[in-house]
Structure formats: structure tokens, C-alpha cells
Design a protein that fits this description.
heterodimer, A: 6-stranded mixed β-sheet, 5-stranded antiparallel β-sheet, 57% strand, B: mainly beta, 7-stranded mixed β-sheet, 11 strands, 49% strand
């Protein structure tokens, strides 16, 4: 079975500071991993995905994430936070060789940006 | 533009009434999903369908029903049996086909039942 744990339900950083959102996964098979962003009252938008190619994945809006198998982690980072980054972020995992196309989502981390 | 549409954006119903939420996609995706989102919580899977005329229960299917008569449409009915129907409902789709691809989401429908 697959699962994800997002550490910290709320993270607050100053504008211009480093953003680090933590995600650890559990998977019995090589995983696909995703980060999604959700703005208030909107659907989820895919930020980036890891599908067993490069371990450092670059996404939209300047975000990137690094897959670390030894640490079972897939943390999301951005060098310099912008006010527009304030949103809810979800880490998700799916099975690479699953006959059922399901994705398991973490409980989310709300990112706040201080002026 | 390809995408997923959900209508309406906001829906209000009286307790005891069934209500159907619409989800349409023009991405030619095989798989479609319904999720429920409550404040401060993640997404919980209600139902999913990997192919037309076939669907499976997710983690919280009780009180909900779906149909998949067309590839592009996957409506969700919230029945009067659902004890706490007030929530934000999200529809998603993916390429499916035996591999596990990313899901694309619609804008959501916020249902309020009083």
C-alpha cells in the first residue's frame, strides 16, 4: 500500500525567504510522486511530478522537488517566496505498476507568506 | 481549450433532497474520479471509473452514487442517505490505461445542505 505524510499543516515564511514543504512517502513499489497546489475555492493544479527519471524535478512557478529514495522523501522547495505562493500544497503518491489508476493524497500544508 | 468543467460552482439544497453534480471533460481521458474535501483536510476518494460503464467505490462511497454512460461525463449524485453532505467536491480525470498518470482537476463544486 502507498501513503504520504506531510510534515506541518501550516508553514509561514517571509516574502523572499526559502520555501520548504516536507513530504515523506511509503510505497512497496517504485512510486510516482506529485505535488499539487490549490488556491482558495479552486481545484488542484499539478506543480510537478516524479516518474523515475531525474531525481531533481523542476515544476511551474519556480518550484522544484528532490526524490530521495534513502530518506523516502520528496520535499518541495522554492528559493524565494512570493506573495502569490500563498496556497494549500498537497503531496501525492501513486503506484508505478498498478492496474487501478489511483493517487493517494497527503493531508496538505497551508503556506502563508509574510510581507 | 481542453479541460474539466464542473457545474455549478455553488449549490444549495435542503436536507433530504438528492442532488447531482456535473463533471465533464474533453481531454479524452479514460479515468475519472470524484473527491470530497472538508476544511483543513485532504482529499477523500468517493468513486472512480477507469472506463465507460464501469466504476468502483472509493474510500467514502456511502450515500453517493455515480454513472459513466459516456467517456466525457461522470456525474455524482449526493443522496439523502449521506449524513454530512456539505463539502467541496472535486472531479478529476487521468489518462489511465493501466499506468498511473497524474490527475487533472476541475474547479470544484461547493455544496451546502441546510
Amino acid at each position: 500500500a502507498q501513503s504520504v505524510t506531510q510534515l506541518g499543516s501550516h508553514v509561514s515564511v517571509s516574502e523572499g525567504a526559502l520555501v520548504l514543504l516536507r513530504c515523506n512517502y511509503s510505497s512497496s513499489v517504485p512510486p510516482y510522486l506529485f505535488w499539487y497546489v490549490q488556491y482558495p475555492n479552486q481545484g488542484l493544479q499539478l506543480l510537478l511530478k516524479y516518474t523515475s527519471a531525474a531525481t531533481l524535478v523542476k515544476g511551474i512557478n519556480g518550484f522544484e522537488a528532490e526524490f530521495k529514495k534513502s530518506e523516502t522523501s520528496f520535499h518541495l522547495t522554492k528559493p524565494s517566496a512570493h506573495m502569490s505562493d500563498a496556497a494549500e500544497y498537497f503531496c501525492a503518491v501513486s503506484a508505478l505498476y498498478s492496474s487501478a489508476s489511483k493517487i493517494i493524497f497527503g493531508s496538505g500544508t497551508r503556506l502563508s507568506i509574510r510581507p | 481549450d481542453g479541460g474539466i468543467t464542473q457545474s455549478p460552482k455553488y449549490l444549495f439544497r435542503k436536507e433530504g433532497q438528492n442532488v447531482t453534480l456535473s463533471c465533464e471533460q474533453n481531454l479524452n481521458h479514460d479515468a475519472m474520479y470524484w473527491y470530497r474535501q472538508d476544511p483543513g483536510q485532504g482529499l477523500r476518494l468517493i468513486y472512480y471509473s477507469q472506463i465507460v460503464n464501469d466504476f468502483q467505490k472509493g474510500d467514502i462511497a456511502e450515500g453517493y452514487s455515480v454513472s459513466r454512460e459516456k467517456k466525457e461525463s461522470f456525474p455524482l449524485t449526493v443522496t439523502s442517505a449521506q449524513k454530512n453532505p456539505t463539502a467541496f467536491y472535486l472531479c478529476a480525470s487521468s489518462s489511465g490505461g493501466g499506468r498511473t498518470y497524474e490527475q487533472y482537476f476541475g474547479p470544484g463544486t461547493r455544496l451546502t445542505v441546510t
